[in-house]
Amino acid sequence: xxxxxxxxxxxxxxxxxxxxxxAIDVSVKRGEIFGFLGANGAGKTTAIRMFCGLLSPTSGSGxxxxxxxxxxxxxxxxxxxxxxxxxxLYPDLTLAQNLELYGRLYGLTxxxxxxxxxxxxxxxxxxxxxxxxxGELPWGWQQRLSLGCxxxxxxxxxxxxxPTGSVDPLSRxxxxxxxxxxxxxxxxxLVTSHYMDxxxxxxRLSIMVAGRIADFGSPAELKRRYSEKTLQGVxxxxxxxxxxxxx
Length: 247
Fold this sequence. Notes:
Blueprint: E1 4-15, E2 18-29, E3 33-37, H1 44-51, E4 59-64, E5 67-68, H2 73-79, E6 80-83, H3 95-105, H4 110-123, H5 139-151, E7 157-161, H6 169-184, E8 188-193, E9 204-209, E10 212-217, H7 219-225, H8 231-242
Parallel strand pairs: 3-8, 3-9, 6-7, 7-8
Antiparallel strand pairs: 1-2, 1-4, 4-5, 9-10
């Protein structure tokens, strides 16, 4: 078995004359929480869309769950969970109906589906809210539902695109605690973020600047490498170097 759940070599995506992702190399171990840290427009979402088989690369190659990202996008999507940056569920449905819909889309039916809805609701702590209409709830609760829908089919890899935007600090902390538990049980997680504090929870991360990976490593390694006390300091130093303003 390949030791890497996600890998890419020279992965590039251009939109006309604009290069959104510029020849990145990535390798994510199984059961690892791997972060893409970068400012808005750095190429993080474009990279995730290519890994999920939703967007074809201009050049380069990659594999997710042993499947080729160019030729086997449909296979990849059956084996991953994806939580989009913007809330992508149905606000006029109840929480239970959203979970049921996503379960059925992934082929779950009958008692298996019913039991799985109960398990997921308990895991993300929304059991008492299942009959509530989704759009009537605060964003923090909707975020829990979105994660539950991404996990309903027990994916081996979970992609999260800036999942904690507009969420209060306590909810963000609880969310990352859940991600840690998932990783401990063997789920591979790739998450994008521009929050410096929360990517401290990642086992390893890459810092993206203008479509390129400026550097990668564990949070502690990056801070030692650049003699910085915070990841924000590391990020600013890399951004300055990339833009030609650093030493």
